[in-house]
Design a protein that fits this description.
Elements: E1 2-3, E2 10-11, E3 15-16, E4 23-24, H1 26-29, H2 33-38, H3 49-53, H4 56-62, H5 74-91, H6 94-112, H7 118-171, E5 174-178, H8 188-199, E6 208-214, E7 224-229, H9 232-243, E8 247-248, E9 259-264
Antiparallel strand pairs: 1-2, 3-4, 5-7, 5-9, 6-7, 8-9
Helix pairs in contact: 4-5, 5-7, 6-7
């Protein structure tokens, strides 16, 4: 058994970061179980989002050659955010460059009116013209950078939408169990298994994505158990079977006669 350092949920099967050696369940790792299996030998080089964030440069270099991810990850969004910040800093100099061009053009106009020292004036004009050409090239480069900035902003917005949709899909098959008192030696998988035995509808462990306790508004001292399963039908069957029985703590081998309720989980 492992415990995910992000959601604090216990799980049997997940992924391991090749840098920090941390074990993560599939939802927190940002990859499906099937996608992780398909990595093959590349499993040994998989990195968590925290470790990826420390190597943004290397991540952006290989991004064009890597296969498209099934779902956007926070590490990719952080990389794009840093790139947006860098480009924004470059764009801030555009106004000063335009002001410099105007000043140089004014100097050229003034030099043309001076009749004395023709050779000096010609040299000055040539130098200023060259500088104007260089600045114009820089302006064109910044205009191109502005287009890249707009494209990155669009990508960033799409990734935000994708992450929101991914989180909603991952929460649609949740089951919420209320009334089970938390104990130091608690095994959440065993609790779910005992409830399944009582109601006659068991959930195989391999069909459970993760199990975690979360606080609720009305029960601050006792957190509800959230069970994420693979199938919507399995979730509905389990909840329907639980509603047909009156479950108390004693049915699960726990102390007390408090009622235990099984409902559809929060979306």
């Amino acid at each position: 058994m492992f415990r995910c350092p992000r959601c604090d949920a216990e799980f049997r099967d997940g992924v391991q970061c090749s840098l920090c050696q941390g074990h993560y369940d599939f939802p927190c790792a940002g990859i499906t179980e099937g996608g992780y299996r398909k990595l093959g030998d590349r499993k040994s080089t998989w990195k968590c989002s925290s470790c990826k964030a420390t190597g943004v440069a290397s991540s952006s270099t290989t991004a064009s050659s890597a296969p498209a991810a099934k779902s956007p990850t926070p590490a990719n969004m952080e990389s794009i955010a840093l790139e947006l910040k860098r480009i924004s800093i470059q764009m801030s100099s555009l106004q000063s460059l335009a002001t410099n061009i105007q000043a140089i053009q004014a100097d050229i106009s003034e030099l043309k009116t001076i009749k004395a020292s023709v050779e000096f004036v010609q040299c000055s004009i040539e130098a200023l013209s060259n500088r104007c050409t260089e600045i114009s090239q820089e302006v064109q480069s910044l205009l191109k950078t502005r287009e890249e900035l707009q494209q990155l902003q669009q990508r960033f917005s799409k990734m935000e939408v994708g992450i929101n949709e991914f989180e909603q899909r991952s929460q649609i098959n949740n089951i919420e169990i209320k009334g089970v008192l938390s104990t130091p030696s608690e095994n959440s998988f065993e609790v779910v298994g005992r409830i399944g035995d009582v109601i006659g509808c068991t959930i195989p462990k391999e069909h459970i994505n993760y199990i975690a306790r979360i606080p609720t508004r009305n029960e601050k001292g006792n957190k509800s158990i959230i069970v994420s399963v693979h199938s919507r039908y399995l979730k509905e069957d389990f909840v329907a079977a639980a509603k047909k029985r009156s479950i108390v703590a004693a049915n699960l081998g726990l102390h007390g006669e408090s009622r235990i309720f099984v409902t559809l989980g929060p979306h």
